[in-house]
């Protein structure tokens, strides 16, 4: 008996020693790993990378910019259904354990022993807390040391943070495939929904993804994805989160994934969105742009943007088809076998719908059967559907064969030719199209605020990301002239001031020859009113006026309006020989339109940070009384506008009234504004030397629209392709639709202006029997001239004078009165 007791005592002592040694070993192990643990307190101030979202003025999403597509959502905003789906899939005892699920650990240990030596990845037993520790603080290394650190961190995290906070971190951090981080971004990416709109099968599918998103890809592994989703649904029913009936119904539903593209989301707004991205990058830097979670409300009017894109493209296509002609197919492929797969490999522009690439399958005399390029399913797979249509000879009548429309299809196309087509009015029929070589840009702006309502930087953003509205430096030609005349009107001239329209020669200095500016029509009208000079875009009159007021003054006005920073003091620059951008020109016209107030063009109304704080707003006006907490019969709030007055409001009205004449009877009259729109519109055409650029900027009291058309590598558009013929019709087509539901609002007449009846031709007061009479605007102290005083006549005009061919005598003016002074080179029609 004593031996037995002694043996038991010895056994107990040995066990005790072993226990103490084991505890010491475990304690040493824990101490070893604890000393190298990351600082888990950083979770308190954690700010995950969140994507920047850009919205139009009406709130619709325009674009998203991110490295990790994530929207941070507080746990209070996550529906119980979504929380339960993730708990059922990942950690059903989350709210009961202290960070470690010991039952799960045992199961994982048994599985590890069973699979030892098989090469299989060890089964995980990580709780949601452990996954937070791994995702935020550790790596994805598969090792015992990482698991030990993970467990230790999980225990510390549980003691520091609430369960809801831990779950919030988890649901916002996890990667769920297709570039989506967190449940809010995943709901949008997979189902185009907010988390509060998710159904049982949708929530279950998202909950199935954290372990291995690529293994349950909705397109490449659809069957496995459905199987995994259904397993989550079963777990939800087993844990009591949903009923068995709801589970069976949910399992019968299709996967229903409709992947939404990232990046720019709104069709036709690519140039606008990229310009916003550039501004955000310059303002905040790369990290803030892609990770800062900015919410950007832009000035974009979605309807006007779509309309601007449509009319500019139509204008470019019309010019290309009538002037440039057919240049041949895009490519040629073998149409034997699966033509769809071959056609899918031909690169196409994806932003010019409804145009599509098509291949000629077989042809006849009057029509050809074409196969349309198949689309790509989500995931990048070529669709198995093969759509066909008919291209008739009427659908290519714009093509010219020896100056005539083709009589047969095979005169233009052969089987295998790849071309662009557009649906015709008749179902199943198509019209032949080609990508135009000519390009251009369009800007629509609010003249009172500088808000850019629409911007189109070219025919196709897929074709060229170069934004011709903001980046292309082009000569504005005669569209610059209103600022020359505005400088004159602001300095004592009137719309009835007479300027000599007669040949002039400019001595440019030793060895530089003589510059002889010419009018577009190459004729002369003698002494003519300042109004006539703009309405009919008279180059020689403009040069004489620039001589009279001086180029330094014109350069000062050009700088005031933001057209040029430093305009060279050469007379040719009075004709628009300097280079500037369309956006600058449109903004300058907007300042005339609004009565001469300085504005800054903007694509952004407001920017908020990830917490909803406004960090930028464009409207800098001061609001007096807007901060009142309640109504106590105080004065109404008032806005204080401190913007600089760059032009006298009366001058602004005078030049506006003159530019109304451009549209009614001047160089833009042929575009048909009055006939097709019939509302007050002012504007100015512009055409550069050799017809390289065609401009028109038109405006109403509340909107300014500018267009230029030209080749990226400047070359002639062809004789006769002026701003009035090419650019003005595009603006007219835009305004016809944009103003259709707007009342006819006249331009606002500022106080002090006198409207006097004058003879349109002479500028003198209208006399009984005068046929062409208009109301002309005069400032206080000015009036129509009682006698002819003509700028450009007399001998006191400066040095280096040379006689020019003289016009017939007018109003008793001697025939040798034409004079000139030195200027720089250049000159535009």
Task: Describe this protein's structure.
It is a single chain. The chain is an alpha+beta fold. The protein has 22 helices and 27 strands. A hairpin with a 6-residue loop joins strand 12 (439-445) and strand 13. The radius of gyration is 37 Å and the shape is elongated. The termini are far apart.
Question: Distance N terminus to C terminus?
Answer: 127 Å
For the sheet with most strands, the description reads:
5 strands, mixed
Number of strands: 27
Write down the overall mean pLDDT: 86
Q: What's the total helix number?
A: 22
Q: What Rg is obtained from the alpha carbons, in whole angstroms?
A: 37 Å
Which tags fit this structure?
5-stranded mixed β-sheet; alpha+beta; 829 residues; 5-stranded mixed beta barrel; single chain; disordered C terminus
